[in-house]
């Protein structure tokens, strides 16, 4: 039987190289530099091949590859070059999916920074940025040194005047270095945003207890942050007045604790806006009413049991007085008391006359009104009820 894959005539493999730049690899270093190329199969079939160069200072690992995607590391050893020397070669990739020739330009840095601690010399700004991510304190000291300015001048840095202006901000060294990286396109400016657009707390209206919480902010990128935090209300107190880079953890989160003084808030809902620079969030406080009364339904049938739902938020005993405009609604008592939530039960018991009216007069329903008084708070509620046959 004929092989199905061969009969289908699958497309052949096609070599695609990534991370090689538009004009090839450009390597600048004071000693050794490394990077990687990615080869992919943009066609079908099986892709395999090798990569090599005729330059002794350029090597690849692994030199051979196979599969739909592979990463090949390269190392350029420029330790034998004099400062400012350049060399050109090519990286040749031959494969079952075609061939690629990648131009390679290597340049020994004319001047390199020497970081403390025996680390490798730093030949470019991108390397310095990576070093600053690893060793921020050491990089900061190097950034404000005469050696760094000399490094920029000897490498023909085009914005030397901007650097000189930036380092005048020596009172905020972290901000100065961050602005330098942003100027050179090495990073984006860090921004902060709240994790939640709003937070809400509910409190007992008579407790007077303070409510604690925290607001969480995220930052969009590594970098300098120093934003004043303000709350537009006298009843909310923030434990921080400024949010800085050091407040953020490894996940880019920073918490701002707060306290709400509930005795300063009237009954009902209040809110205030908390601002951290351009970012803002709202803190809502809902001061619950002393009590609430609800009737789950309005229409009842004969002999059905019902109830009024009481929610007590006062934190103390509440006295309830109930009455009905019609005797068909019968409560166990006319007075109730409750420390917490409670159900005030009743049963529907029409009189014989009312039942006869349902049959002979075809009365559709009996209207009734339940009145609930709460003497503690001098408040009352009315519920309209219909009794159907």
- When the domains are counted, the total is 4
How would you write the strand order of the largest sheet? 2-9-8-4-6
Q: What is the straight-line distance between the termini?
A: 83 Å
Task: Count every beta strand, where a strand is a DSSP E run of 2 or more residues.
Answer: 27
CATH class of the largest domain: Mainly Beta
The structure class reads alpha+beta
CATH topology descriptor of the largest domain: Immunoglobulin-like
Q: Radius of gyration over alpha carbons?
A: 39 Å
Describe this structure in words.
The chain is α+β, with helices and mostly antiparallel strands and 389 residues long. The chain has four domains: 4-108, Immunoglobulins (Immunoglobulin-like, Sandwich); 116-183, no CATH class; 192-287, Immunoglobulin-like (Sandwich); 291-388, Immunoglobulins (Immunoglobulin-like, Sandwich). It is 15% helix and 44% strand. It contains seven helices and 27 strands. It has helices at 4-8, 125-134, 136-143, 146-154, 160-166, 173-183, 352-360; strands spanning 15-18, 25-29, 32-41, 48-52, 58-61, 64-66, 69-77, 86-95, 98-108, 192-194, 198-203, 211-219, 226-231, 236-238, 242-244, 253-260, 268-276, 279-287, 291-294, 299-301, 305-312, 318-324, 329-331, 335-338, 342-348, 366-374, 379-388. A five-stranded mixed sheet has the order 2-9-8-4-6, with no helix packed on it. The radius of gyration is 39 Å and the shape is elongated. The termini are far apart.
């Amino acid at each position: 039987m004929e092989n199905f894959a061969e009969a289908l005539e699958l497309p052949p493999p096609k070599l695609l190289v990534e991370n090689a730049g538009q004009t090839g690899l450009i390597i600048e270093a004071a000693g050794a530099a490394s990077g990687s190329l990615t080869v992919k199969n943009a066609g079908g079939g099986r892709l395999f091949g090798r990569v090599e160069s005729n330059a002794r200072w350029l090597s690849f690992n692994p030199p051979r590859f196979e599969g739909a995607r592979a990463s090949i590391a390269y190392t350029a050893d420029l330790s034998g070059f004099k400062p400012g020397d350049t060399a050109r070669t090519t990286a040749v990739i031959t494969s079952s999916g075609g061939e690629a020739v990648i131009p390679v330009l290597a340049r020994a840095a004319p001047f390199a920074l020497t970081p403390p601690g025996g680390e490798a010399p730093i030949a470019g700004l991108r390397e310095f940025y990576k070093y600053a991510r690893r060793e921020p304190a050491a990089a900061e000291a190097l950034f404000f040194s005469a050696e760094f300015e000399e490094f920029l001048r000897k490498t023909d840095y085009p914005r030397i005047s901007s650097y000189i202006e930036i380092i005048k901000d020596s009172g905020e060294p972290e901000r100065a270095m961050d602005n330098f990286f942003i100027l050179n396109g090495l990073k984006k400016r860090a921004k902060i945003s709240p994790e939640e657009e709003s937070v809400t707390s509910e409190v007992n209206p008579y407790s007077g207890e303070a409510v604690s919480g925290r607001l969480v902010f995220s930052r969009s990128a590594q970098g300098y942050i120093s934003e004043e935090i303000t709350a537009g209300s006298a009843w909310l107190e923030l434990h921080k007045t400024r949010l800085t880079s050091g407040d953020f953890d490894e996940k880019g989160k920073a918490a701002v604790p707060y306290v709400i003084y509930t005795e300063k808030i009237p009954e009902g809902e209040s809110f205030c806006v908390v601002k951290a620079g351009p970012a803002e969030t709202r803190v809502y406080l809902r001061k619950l009413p002393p009590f609430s009364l609800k009737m789950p339904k309005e229409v009842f049938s004969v002999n059905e049991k019902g109830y009024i739902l009481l929610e007590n938020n006062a934190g103390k005993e509440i006295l309830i007085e109930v009455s009905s405009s019609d005797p068909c609604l019968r409560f166990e008592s006319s007075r109730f008391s409750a420390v917490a939530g409670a159900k005030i039960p009743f049963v529907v018991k029409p009189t014989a006359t009312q039942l006869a009216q349902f049959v002979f007069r075809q009365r559709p329903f009996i209207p009734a009104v339940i009145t609930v008084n709460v003497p503690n708070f001098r408040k009352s509620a009315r519920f309209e009820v219909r009794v159907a046959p």
